[in-house]
Structure formats: C-alpha cells, structure tokens
Specification:
alpha/beta; 2-enoyl-CoA Hydratase, Chain A, domain 1; Lyase 2-enoyl-coa Hydratase, Chain  A, domain 2; 2 domains; six-stranded mixed β-sheet; four-stranded mixed β-sheet; 11 helices; globular; binds acetoacetyl-coenzyme A
Length: 260
C-alpha cells in the first residue's frame, strides 16, 4: 500500500513507520491519521513483523501536533470527528498485537506526544522536546492525552503539563516518568533497533499476551486482571514456542521462536 504522509519500511521482522510531512513538522492532518490507522492495521496483520518502530522524518520533529491549519475553522461536530479520527489511528498502535516503540527524534507536541503515549515504550533523543501546548491554542488534548498522561505520571503532573501548555526537555520528561530512556540524537535509531531486536528474539505470542494483560490492568480491577493473567498464562502452554523455550532452557541452548 502506498502512503503519501508516511514511510513504512520493513527489515528482518521489524517495521519502521515514519511520519513524513517535514514541511509541516510532520503535523497530523486527517489524511495522515487515516493513513496511520491503515498502516497500523496492515502491520498488525503482517505475520512477518514482530516489532514496530514509530518515528518522524528529519532531525527536527517527531510530530509537532495535530494540524492547526486544518483545525482552525472546524465546527464543534467537526472537532469531535477529528478527535475520533485521532483516537482510531492511535488505537491501531495501542492495540496492535505486537510491541510498538516510539523513537522521539525531536518535537513531540500535542497530538504528536499523544502518538508517543499510545506506543508501548518511548525512547527519546536528548534533543527531544515534549508537551501539550493545546491550551495555548484554546483547546485541550484530543488524541488521548487527557486520559493516557495521567495514567502514566499521575493526575497532578498531567494537569500541570496540560494546564500550562509548557514544552519540556527530554531530561525533565524522563524524570517525570514520561519516557523510558534518553539517547544521544545520532544513536536513537541504533538503540531503538537494538531494543526491537531484543524483544523480537522472545516468544511473539507471549509478548502479545503480556501486552494485552498489562494494557488491560489499567481498566480492570485486580481480581479481573489476575483472572485474565491466569487465562493468558495458560494459553501460552498451547504454543510450540512455550515447549521450545523451556526445552531450550533444559538443553542449555538459545531458543528459536516461530510464533506458533
Ligand atoms: N500544525 C500545522 N503546521 C505546523 C504545526 C502544526 N501543529 N507545527 C508546525 N507547523 C508548520 C509551521 O506552520 C511552519 O510552516 P510554514 O513554514 O509554512 O510557516 C512549519 O511547520 C515550521 O514550523 P515553525 O516555523 O513554527 O518552526 P519553529 O522551529 O519556529 O517552531 C515549533 C517549532 C515550536 C514546534 C512550532 O512549530 C510550534 O509551536 N508548532 C505547533 C505546536 C502545537 O501547538 N502543537 C499542538 C497542536 S494542537 C493538537 O495537537 C490537538 C490535539 O491534541 C489533537
């Protein structure tokens, strides 16, 4: 499938999905959101792909937010539809049945930061700047930021970020718990690829079910969460990968997983 605003590359079981509107600092217009959902669904269905990396084209921006030019004259109903389009696109990342890593290579603001928050793990360049400038524009985050940020850093920190609209550097974001790791700019893709390789070497089905259990822990109570965990844990024993993983341990060799 051809994309106008995204570049999708696949190599050795790892896909890289790159936002590619550098003239607008990769801002998310409706066309890009629709493409993002299609690309997410496509990579989800691709059995060869075990890990997905999301990043931005160029040195300056991951994504500088939703497209302000497109939003400027929206009606209330159109605003709701635009937000829903963003939710659908980001759900394709959050619910993908394989890990998704954000490689934040520059500005990740507003909807751009919300894309990163929908990913499973965030590595950022030391030059990255993140935040929610929406309130400086007379709106508030609309692609999941009001929901996902608080779950990550707590209500008070999320409120401070969103109410002030301030942009913060990678170090402050890391200390707040918004990022997994800060990496020198020129090493970002090297480190993210090494992380993807490490995850790729593990049992794909077990990683997929672990993602499901962890994501659902945010909405299930402890009893329901543990019931899901026991069910998914049991399901692992229906796979060849579980037999291979444990046999390899006993035989003192490295396991080779096939995803079956
Ligand atoms: N939407 C549309 N165009 C954007 C954009 C955006 N979010 N961000 C940057 N651009 C465009 C600029 O208009 C500019 O285009 P022109 O060259 O045609 O004028 C080009 O990208 C380069 O940007 P700047 O000249 O502004 O670059 P800079 O280095 O001076 O500043 C920046 C960089 C601080 C990131 C600045 O561009 C900026 O503040 N961008 C907007 C950030 C923002 O407010 N994001 C939140 C949007 S709202 C949202 O995301 C809602 C939601 O939750 C759904």
């Amino acid at each position: 499938m051809e994309f106008k605003n995204l570049i999708v590359e696949k190599k050795d079981g790892i896909a890289t999905l790159k936002f590619n509107r550098p003239k607008a600092l990769n801002a998310l217009n409706s066309e890009t959101l629709i493409e993002l959902k299609a690309a997410g669904d496509m990579l989800n269905a691709d059995k060869e792909i075990r890990v997905v990396i999301v990043t931005g084209e160029g040195d300056k921006a991951f994504v500088a937010g939703a497209d302000i030019l497109e939003m400027k004259d929206l009606t209330a109903l159109e605003g709701m539809a635009f937000s829903a389009r963003g939710h659908q696109a980001l759900a394709a990342l959050e619910n993908m049945e394989k890990p998704v890593i954000a490689a934040v290579n520059g500005f990740a603001l507003g909807g751009g930061f919300e894309v990163a928050l929908a990913c499973d793990i965030i590595y950022a360049s030391d030059k990255a700047k993140v935040g929610f400038p929406e309130t400086t524009l007379g709106i508030h985050p609309g692609f999941g930021g009001t929901q996902r940020a608080a779950k990550l850093v707590g209500l008070a920190r999320a409120k401070e970020l969103i109410f002030t609209g301030k942009t913060i550097g990678a170090q402050e974001a890391y200390e707040m718990g918004l990022l997994n790791k800060i990496v020198p700019q020129d090493q970002l893709m090297v480190e993210v690829t090494a992380l993807a390789e490490k995850i790729k070497a593990n049992g794909p089905f077990s990683v997929r079910l672990a993602k499901e259990c962890i994501n659902k822990s945010l909405s299930l109570d402890n009893k329901e969460g543990l019931t899901l965990e026991a069910k998914d844990f049991g399901l692992c024993f229906a796979t060849k990968d579980q037999k291979e993983g444990m046999t390899a341990f006993v035989e003192k060799r490295k396991a080779t997983f096939t995803g079956e």
